[in-house]
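Work Package 4 report. The design task specified in the project plan requires that, given a folded chain encoded as structure tokens, an amino acid be chosen for each position. We show below one input record used in the internal validation round.
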């Protein structure tokens, strides 16, 4: 790990000095990976934001939540889901990752037994698409 980091720094210096594009790309790739270690994953593999928006309307999430881009989603029972793709936590309980967001949507009470958000019997496919849509909100 340390040796690789030193090697990357050396390559960075080479790139800075010589302007070698290939070395610069290698360094960019490595640093992207490092920052990815601690940062939550905000991509939902296989999720369709478009179908997610439709699912949000189907399940009536908007009766309790304000959700940008979803018609008549202006409920005030739950917190607004504005800029949800930038939030650090879900319901103050879970790190906001794609997996955790789907867990929450599928069964909120399994995450936080006292929560007022009901289990809406969302299917796993719909939860994936809904999560993908919520991550477009930035
Ligand atoms: C009956 C009202 C109600 C409905 C319907 C509802 N929710 Fe919620 N939701 C809540 C409440 C209340 C909370 C706050 C939970 C807590 O912090 O314990 C919440 C929290 C959330 C959170 C976390 C928000 C935050 O600020 O961390 C997300 C995401 C969420 N809901 C998504 C959804 C989705 C998606 C649907 C539709 C499938 C939905 N909700 C339907 C009431 C509702």
């Amino acid at each position: 790990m340390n040796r690789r980091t030193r090697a990357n720094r050396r390559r960075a210096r080479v790139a800075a000095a010589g302007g070698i594009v290939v070395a610069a790309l290698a360094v960019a790739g490595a640093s992207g990976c490092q920052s990815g270690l601690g940062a939550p994953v905000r991509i939902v593999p296989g999720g369709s934001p478009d179908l997610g928006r439709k699912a949000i309307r189907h399940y009536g999430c908007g009766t309790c939540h304000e959700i940008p881009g979803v018609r008549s989603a202006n409920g005030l029972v739950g917190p607004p889901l504005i800029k949800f793709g930038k939030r650090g936590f879900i319901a103050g309980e879970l790190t906001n990752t794609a997996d955790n967001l789907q867990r929450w949507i599928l069964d909120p009470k399994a995450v936080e037994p006292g929560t007022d958000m009901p289990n809406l019997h969302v299917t796993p496919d719909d939860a994936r698409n809904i999560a993908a849509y919520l991550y477009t909100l930035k």
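The domain at 49-134 is CATH 2.60.40.420 (Immunoglobulin-like). Validation will be extended to a larger panel in the next phase.
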